[in-house]
Amino acid sequence: MKRILTGIKPTGTPHIGNYFGAIKQAIELSKNEDYEALYFIADYHALNTVKNPELFKKYTHEIAATWLACGLDPGKVMFYKQSDIPEVFELNWILNNITPKGVLNRAHAYKACVEDNKNKNLDPDSGVNMGLYCYPVLMAADILLMQSNLVPVGLDQKQHLEITKEIARYFNNTFGNFFVSPEEYIPESVGTIIGLDGRKMSKSYGNTITLFGDEKMLRSQINKIVTNSQTPEEPKDTDCAIFKIFSLFANSKQIEEMKEKFSKGIGWGEVKKQTFEVANSLLAPMREVYNYYISHPEEIDKILENGAKKARQIAAQTIGEVRKLIGKE
Ligand code: ADP
Ligand code: TRP
Fold this sequence. Notes:
With 329 residues, the protein is mainly alpha-helical. The chain has 14 helices and five strands. The strands form two sheets. Strands 1-2-3 form a three-stranded parallel sheet. Strand 1, helix 1 and strand 2 (35-41) form a beta-alpha-beta unit. The radius of gyration is 22 Å and the shape is globular. Bound molecules: adenosine-5'-diphosphate and tryptophan (TRP). The site of adenosine-5'-diphosphate has 14 residues, from helix 1.
């Protein structure tokens, strides 16, 4: 059976941009009976940005609880933590030795750091650690170890998939044809989810709506969506953050009705109130599951350990073959 695999970096509390932009589609895909699905928490990738042990643990649990609350079925999907698969790190080292440094010099995240340093007249490598530099190799190890066929990712990860394919080719050319060449799957219909200020919703802009905050937090974040000074009576343009956010949660009838109200005139306060209502009715049942897991972290740990046990069977097989191919055994 073909394998589908994706990694989720636990670098912050999930927001609705993550849900509508990535989680929802990935969970739909995981239900496809034609694939064996492996979804994992890329915690050692996150170590590059999260250097606080309390936060590291908190984000890992939050991400796991989020995916479970959004419908990931651990009976169907192998759901595990990257750091629980030691074979990933063995393969990572082996792949380091066949990856030309030049390939990593061209990786976007590293290049952006170097450019930024140059613009600030700093040493080009200032603040660049080896975790950032070698990030694409670890990602290749995640993917190749599981002989993945399909990898759902956001557009920003396309280059990493290209590097993974390149690394697979180098290995196959050096040691014999072994690794499956993975295909990226970038859902096209997913647009950018807009944040409170009209820019892309992102934790780095501080303009997010927390996916599973409590009702009070949801209401207060929705109230912060930037509008203009038009009076309630004035007809309004639907090309604005609040209408876009409302539409994420509303059904087509509700969207039509809201359009009508925009053209006739409606107060921003009322739009925000209705946005809260539709958002809360979608999120409330999922929030309940989320809160359950957050208050039972031992259940999350059990699910992830179980997932790791299954995934390690695949990992052991691959690494066994790799060891033979390189001449270790
Ligand atoms: P952030 O931008 O808040 O740091 P991440 O980079 O951790 O978010 O994103 C995790 C996943 O969620 C990625 O697959 C990314 O494509 C998706 N995602 C994040 N923000 C958005 C957004 N505003 N619109 C669509 N997808 C998003
Ligand atoms: N780099 C990915 C991100 O930032 C996360 C990730 C790590 C990943 N390993 C992966 C995604 C393997 C797909 C496959 O979102």
